[in-house]
Amino acid sequence: MQQSNVSYSYSGSQVTLLVVLRILIGWHFLYEGVTKLLNPSWSSLGYLADSKGIFADMFQNWASNPNAVRTIDFMNEWGLTLVGLGLIMGCLTRISIFGGIVMLGFYYLSHPPMVGYKYALPSEGSYLWVNKNLIEIFALAVLYVFPTHQIVGIDRLIFSKKYNKSI
Question: What is the pTM assigned to this prediction?
Fold first, then answer.
């Protein structure tokens, strides 16, 4: 099977907007992670217990297990922080994008934006099936298929031989 020599050719404004999108999403993740790390009373317990939808039993069972809550808290605090740093710096970007999509997927499944579901905390814009988590999942998917980390970011330095393409 022959390998194709794919060449990426983006305009300056395309690269700029994609990198800015990556950094903005990274900032959102980093901010959420750091605020949780700095708040000793933060816990995912209330969020898990407030879950609705077809996966509510799973999330509520996790909420009833103190060890699971501690693990989920740790994964949220550090996962959000590391995903944010990875996206901002363009370092291990594909891993960061995948981690971000997985985390957002769990948030979306825990609190799906459906008519009739009332949550303890007000949601930030929910338009029947679509909310900020779903939009951010797809924005990360766009970043995954447009490899800006090969153009601007630490990945370019780390993996320069692998990405030695005319971009």
Answer: 0.86
Which stretches within the chain are classed as H helix? 12-38, 45-49, 56-63, 66-89, 93-110, 132-145, 154-158
State how far the alpha carbon of 22 is from the alpha carbons of 42, 71, 153, in Å: 27, 27, 11
Tell me which H or E stretch contains 166.
Answer: none
CA 26 to CA 21: how far, in whole Å? Answer: 8
157 DSSP 8-state letter: H
Q: What is the pLDDT of residues 12-63, one digit of tens each?
A: 899 999 999 999 999 999 999 999 999 999 999 999 999 998 999 999 999 9
Cβ–Cβ < 8 Å for 31, 84: yes
Q: Under the phi-then-psi rule, with left for phi > 0, alpha for psi from -120 to 50, and beta for the rest, what region is 55? A: alpha
pLDDT digits (tens, 9 = 90+) for 33-46: 999 999 999 999 99
